[in-house]
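tokens incoming
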């Protein structure tokens, strides 16, 4: 008997064990894969990794029952089901959940994940499973990211050119995850960085959790002159941002691969650096997990499920219409 997965407006629910996966509105019990706001709510009871628990407490204070499970440690979640968390490579503490049920087999839910090595997150694991639920943010072939080293070289050049011109390079990035990735990636260039107050708070938690950044690389968040500034894009209209002298802006995101991204974001440059798996890595992940059934969620879920079916795998986009294709003579089966 296979796992049953319910796709509801609030997210995904596993009725066999009555747990939710990354429910985005309060429920009784939910696995929280990581601490980004769209994966966290005021649940009564959560299951997560130790770094995620610390970050959730900082970002969403309040009382809750916490089941904190270190990576690789297996515990019993229900009488007939065990649970193990594995790193997802998305941000610090991001976790995949592997459930092993006596009747339904092994189910792996990735949450947001990334196979490419990151500078501020644990390396992604690839445990085998019978049923795979995977995020497919970049589930179209055109989302093939260049090597991170090339992207960082371009970011460093952008920053140095701006500073040489008397401008302030501003890199728009999420406070949690992307800001710390940028901070680590700019360390070898010895570029001094000012973080937005929200990003600075999160970075201090990273340090508290044992992640070391280059000494002296982070400046007080009130100092922006002759610095690289890293801040969320939502701060562009804030009083804090208006104190930045001669800003020259860049968005750091996988969506930089889209045509016209620079004009849509109304910035001076875009850089395709992402904490999500790109299309080739999505395919590679499925091949390595080798599940009997794949469920896709988020992003281009229908497109990626269709591509997997064309490769001969059973795949369905959860909560979406799944139009089955009629293979013509000569098509791959």
């Amino acid at each position: 008997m296979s796992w049953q997965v319910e796709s509801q407006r609030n997210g995904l629910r596993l009725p066999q064990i009555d747990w939710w996966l990354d429910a985005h509105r309060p429920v009784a019990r939910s696995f929280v894969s990581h601490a980004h706001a769209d994966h966290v709510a005021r649940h009564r009871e959560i299951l997560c990794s130790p770094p995620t628990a610390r970050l959730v407490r900082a970002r969403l204070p309040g009382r809750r029952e916490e089941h904190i499970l270190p990576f690789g440690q297996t515990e019993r979640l229900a009488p007939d089901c065990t649970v193990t968390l594995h790193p997802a490579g998305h941000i610090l503490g991001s976790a995949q959940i592997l459930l092993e049920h006596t009747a339904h087999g092994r189910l792996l839910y990735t949450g947001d994940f990334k196979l490419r090595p990151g500078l501020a997150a644990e390396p992604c694991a690839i445990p085998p499973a019978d049923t795979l639920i995977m995020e497919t943010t970049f589930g179209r072939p055109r989302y093939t990211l260049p090597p991170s080293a090339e992207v960082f070289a371009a970011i460093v050049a952008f920053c140095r050119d701006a500073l040489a011109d008397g401008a302030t390079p501003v890199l728009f990035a999420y406070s949690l995850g992307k800001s710390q990735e940028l901070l680590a990636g700019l360390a070898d260039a010895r570029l001094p960085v000012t973080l937005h107050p929200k990003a600075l708070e999160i970075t201090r938690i990273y340090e508290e959790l044992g992640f070391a950044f280059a000494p002296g690389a982070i400046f007080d968040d009130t100092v922006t002159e002759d610095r690289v500034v890293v801040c969320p894009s939502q701060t562009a209209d804030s009083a804090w941002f208006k104190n930045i002298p001669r800003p020259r802006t860049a968005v750091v995101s996988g969506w930089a691969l889209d045509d016209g991204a620079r004009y849509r974001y109304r910035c001076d440059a875009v850089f395709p650096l992402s904490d999500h798996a790109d299309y080739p890595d999505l395919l590679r992940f499925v091949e390595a997990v080798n599940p009997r059934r794949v469920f896709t969620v988020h992003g281009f879920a229908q497109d990626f499920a269709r591509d997997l079916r064309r490769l001969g795998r059973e795949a369905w986009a959860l909560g979406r219409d799944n139009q089955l294709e009629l293979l013509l003579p000569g098509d791959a089966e």
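note: Residues 326-333 have pLDDT under 50 and may be disordered.
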